[in-house]
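[Backbone geometry]
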Amino acid sequence: MTFGHIRQIRRLHLDLLYCYKIVFGLVNENFDDFFALSTNTNTRGHKHKLFEPRCTASIRQKFFVDRVINVWNALPSTTNFASLNVLGIALKRLISLVFLLCNIFICVIEYAPSDCFY
């Protein structure tokens, strides 16, 4: 894992923790300035899903709100939102697992014989 990957993992972790603080009112930021709760009740996953606005500008991908919404909404239904510390521990485990699986997948593709894939 390169230094760039470590920075991305750390940024993602801190972004999600800050998102938690905004959603649950732990910081002096107005929730409505950043997010809106999703009104769709037929979705899988946790009950704190955020509305994802449509935007075609590629520059928006670098904004905090647009960076964090997809990842926040993709958190599993088993995610414990009881406290910031509990969420932080769960996120570290989840992010570590995802990157471990991605690295295993990359290794399998790099070292597998070329005739294994169609």
Notes: The chain has four helices and no strands. Residues 3-116 form one domain.
